[in-house]
Specification:
The complex is a heterotrimer of chains A (about 400), B (about 240) and C (about 160).
Chain A: H1 16-42, H2 57-72, H3 74-80, H4 91-111, H5 119-124, H6 131-154, H7 162-185, H8 198-225, H9 231-261, H10 266-275, H11 278-300, H12 302-305, H13 308-335, E1 345-348, H14 362-385, H15 395-398
Chain B: H1 6-33, E1 46-51, H2 57-70, E2 88-94, E3 101-107, H3 115-119, E4 125-127, E5 133-135, H4 145-149, E6 156-157, E7 176-177, H5 183-186, H6 193-200, E8 206-210, H7 217-224, E9 240-243
Parallel strand pairs in B: 1-9
Antiparallel strand pairs in B: 1-8, 2-3, 4-5, 6-7
Helix pairs in contact in B: 2-6
Chain C: H1 2-35, H2 54-75, H3 84-91, E1 104-105, H4 107-117, H5 123-126, E2 130-131, H6 135-138, H7 145-163
The chains are: A mainly alpha (about 400), B alpha+beta (about 240), C mainly alpha (about 160).
Chain lengths: ~400, ~240, ~160
Amino acid sequence: MAVDTTVYKEIEGTGGDYYSLVGWLAVMIAAGLGSTYYMEHHGHVVTGMSNAIVWGTPHVFAVFLIVAASGALNIASISSVFSKYHYKPLARLSAITALALLAGGLMVLVLDLGRPDRLIVAMTKYNFKSIFAWNIYLYTGFFVIVLTYLWMMMERRMVPHSKKAGLFAFVWRLALTTGTGSIFGFLVARPGYDAAIMAPMFIAMSFSFGLAFFIILVSVTYKTSGRPLGDLILFKMRNLLGVFIAAAFYFTVVQHLTNLYAAEHSGVEAFILMDGGIYTFLFWVVQVGLGTVFPMALLFNPATGRTCQGIVIASLLVIVGGLAQMYVIIVGGQAFPLQLFPGMEVSSSFFDGAVHAYAPSLPEVLLGLSGIAMTLMIVTVAIKYLPLMPTSLSDAKVDPHHASKDA
Amino acid sequence: MNAVDTSRRNLLKGGAAAAIVTLAPGVTLQTVQAAVTGPATNAKRWGMLIDANAPEGVWDLAVDACKAEQGWGKDEKDANPATDPQWIRKVSIKDPKTGAKASLPVMCQHCANPPCVDVCPTGASMKREDGIVLVDKHICIGCRYCMMACPYSCRSFVHEDVHGQRPHMPRGKGTVESCTMCVHRVDKGQKPACVEALNKAGSNAIMFGDLNDPNSEISRAVSKYVTQRIRADLGVEPGVHYRGI
Amino acid sequence: MRSASRILSLTILGFVLIAFGIGSGLMATSAQAGEVPLPKPAKAFKGEQCVEPTDVMRRNHFEFLKHQRDETLREGIRGNKYSLNECIDCHAVTSPDVAGGKVRTLKPFCAECHSYAAVSIDCFQCHSGAAQPGIGSQSALPADHADKALVAALEKHLNTGAKQ
């Protein structure tokens, strides 16, 4: 095994571009905090969420970020656990991106609570039958483990131990994503959830969303800092992304096919796939079309798939599709009414039997976006003060022995 | 012999009175200690039996009684149906093929295996030993996961500031609430407000009692008639039985 | 050279912190000289003596409340020594700030000390703390609650009388 000669160096971070980026991210975070104050002060009546749709836009963003967080750690895991040394130079950046995504997602989740002042209660009183309670440990544990892993990669004398830490982090993030998927999978009451496949589906989604986010991050940071980004590593990540998009799509297909087969679930399937209005549109046009088929075409068409721009656009589309998928799962799953009396038409003052209405409100959207802003802010600041980014990701640096072949 | 010695009698009366006054606190002190009620035990299992054949109007009575007792009602002009709490609601059912209709009230079903209790991260959603499912609003963080989990959609999130709470029913913004089966009345040996209101109107459409007591009215009714429970297939074992659906 | 200046700056920092600590201690004692008036919680509506001596209550009332709330809510034990309704029954007073002085609530009693100590409590976001006529029937206290208080007072009177 060749000695790792990668040079990691902080970025300059002194230009007007850098400061205006930080400024805009700070504004977005402030907007999210302002929304939180507004929602907390007036109560959730100012949002679009109701007694029927209890989790809305903030949860769509939060769950997306949390799912992407465990996926963003993939590059580091692949390099440590599976010994693919091409990805080694990006391992540090992968770890910090994972931490940043999780921090952003959790921030949104916590700020949306009805009583965020009781966060201490949530961290000291546990009902261990609840997957939520387990998730609190999984999320905080993830922070500790990935920080340790990152430190081990950066501290020369600990580098030999980083492989073990990487393996531990890899197993932990699988548990974390299983826990996140199980939040929905464990709900027997709702026909749109209640499926064991939720957990592996979320894992596949995490691979896809996390890598897409990471690719965009790497491309943008390298282009703007003027450091070389070679085709080799870019095309390797592109191929990985293609595989992950296909895997996530596979699980989606299996989930819907299984539901379609069972007469019990035909109602909710017809709702999502055919007459759900916005949810049907988001599923077919955005999740499947823009988020799966179109990126795959972009990635594997030689004209677009071999350009950095094409790969970045495909990654952006995957993220858009991912947000739509979260919206369909989280909001669509709640919009379809509970079947208290299967086969009967039901009505009441509490909207039984009727599709529940929901429209995202401004405070919710601002809060959700502030989560993404927090993620980007953490990464932006981290790459300035810590040596996380290799000075060069050119083909020669990534793989000194490579023979140039068509990727 | 005819002249009774009243002075001795008076002395005895006075002495007896003094003795009683001295002893009485000691005697009543024992009963004072026993005046503490509870704890609830699983010797009882509170439940309801609802007769869906009753005329529709009684369900409106039940809803109004609950609003008045627990304080969650709102003026018509301030009403916001999507976010206003509804602890109990009248559900109208129609068979799309035959046109047959029915209506019945749905409230917290006080399940024996409540999904809301399973999913609550802090343990705020809880089941008391005697089967009443409650929200401990002291530790509720307002995450609404229990609302996602409830098959009967019977929980409400308090979306706005609350004023004018009933002294026995603290409620506040940012927490989740649902039917308490009038636990404050049940613990005093009374019936829930909805049951009482119906009884006053001469209806027994909602019957309340101890399902574990074979001699209670509800146990005898549940043994005599085959009753149904909403979504019994889920295995959550609701404490609210229905007849006639 | 560098370590010397570091020692010097740390020493100065240490002195500053100590001075701050002593200074704030001095300022605290000067408060009792009359800068911030001490709280005067309202006299109880009825009863001569709380269920615990004043200094015990002052130090521990939150512990009692915290354990009592679980006993009442989670276990269904009502009417015992630290029951919230017991507190309300005696300590709820009228205040011009609350419903124009028409309703007896616990709020003015608690607020007096809590605003002095700047310890915010969120009890009254949910609890009305209001005493209403016939609280015995409104709350879950046993029906003979008022008699119980009378007997306790009588017993105390008799005991103190016997000692004379």
